[in-house]
Design a protein that fits this description.
It contains eight helices and ten strands. The chain is an alpha/beta fold and about 270 residues long. Residues about 1-5 have low confidence and may be disordered. Bound molecules: S-adenosylmethionine. S-adenosylmethionine binds near residues 51, 54, 73, 74 and 123. S-adenosylmethionine binds next to helix 1 and helix 2.
Amino acid sequence: MAKDNDYVLGTHDEEIQRLGLQHRVWRPRALDAWRRAGFTVGQTLMDVGCGPGYASLDLAGIVGPAGHIIACDRSRRFLDALEAARDHLGIDNITTHELDLSEAALPASGLDGAWCRWVFAFVKNPRSLLSRVAAAIRPGGVAVFHEYFNYASWRFTPRSSELEEFVQAAMKSWRADGGEPDIGLDLPVWLRELGFEIDTLKPIIDVVPATNFVWQWPVTFVEVALHRLVDLKHLTPERSHAISKALADATADPRTLMVTPAVLEIIAHKR
Ligand SMILES: C[S@@+](CC[C@H](N)C(=O)[O-])C[C@H]1O[C@@H](n2cnc3c(N)ncnc32)[C@H](O)[C@@H]1O
């Protein structure tokens, strides 16, 4: 079984908190995508790479007691967090599966749909994972994705060379770890090859001041990632310090706007 520390950002409590904040920022868009995808009561859906399961819990509410959520991740700690929340809330239609999505057979077939957010960007064999997700979905079933397609769109105005340096270092370390941040560029082609029709393609990008809730999502990532980039020697402690200071200065400057990393929403159904 793969070890928890295989996930590039770790599975410690701070990362569980960060993923929760990230879900709260993105939740309105996820709910909107699921509605347009036709997710509804009685369905069986897979949350592919569910993490601590914030989306799984929402999906469980949509499919209701007659439906079922199959939540898969390789992190035992994340699945423990999901199971604790599930049991605390008295939800009984989520089952969890600890597995390595890069290679494992998926524990389902005939699915009505799948939800995949910020997962294909991390797995080492995303085309293989997509083919296994495709095989697990019934004809007419729907897959919904939120994955980056232009991570380097993450910039600031006034421009910040330090924050652009950070984004480049983050992408470099991500790729060195076997992931591909801009995996959203590959998914539409692969989906067609695997027998899907694309229903909608929607770029999601915001331009926000520090007072906007959306700002919190990328910024909390900087704090987690800087430590890691120094540990992995993608940044020196001096550059990390300069980036931290530039971020603090940008946050305090009322002129600052952040352009967020660009996410591609894909809704596609299996022919
Ligand atoms: C950025 S988190 C996203 C979690 C969740 N989808 C969400 O949107 O909150 C990436 C997730 O992918 C999982 N993951 C990465 N590589 C994996 C693999 N090879 N097998 C299973 N899970 C993997 C991580 O454990 C983590 O939970």
